[in-house]
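Q: Structure tokens for this one, please.
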Amino acid sequence: MLRCDLDPRTHLRLLGEADATELAALVRANRHHLAPWMPWVGEESPSATLAFIRGTRRQLAEENGFQTAIVHDGAIAGVVGFHGVDRVNRATSIGYWLAADRQGQGIMTRAVAALVGHALTAWKLHRVEIRVATGNARSRAIPERLGFRREGTLRGAERHGERFLDLDVFALLAPEWRGAP
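A: Here is the predicted structure, written as tokens:
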């Protein structure tokens, strides 16, 4: 089982079926925090979460990236992972979310840095992309802190119910990576 220690209190590990109830409860507890930015919020039942986790296992088996639980002080605090891997173009994208009460501690910056490092060194990819809703200042700070460049805005690119959000695109190329902060 994949495990990556970020600090003495925090590590990343693959999601397992046994995590479904805890993960669904975490999303439910953070519904108001996540709903403005995550279109899937509202589907946080244990069965929907279990289906998501099973999908992450298929993703891993197909060597198309992976999703990890961010575990802080022994409890799941969020999720970070790859949306997929484009081997032809040697590119990937990363998505993430973190519980409201765990923000401001550098947890997500360290988690994303670990995945960027993995993509660029272990997989020898050339490009890592992060898309962030234009109004999501906390999420946008992650790629900025890690040296990603803002490449532009995709207008109306993500549907959230009956509204569409603009997404800012940030990217980092392998020669630009200097490692974790």
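A few notes: The first strand starts at residue 3 and ends at 7. The mean pLDDT is 92.
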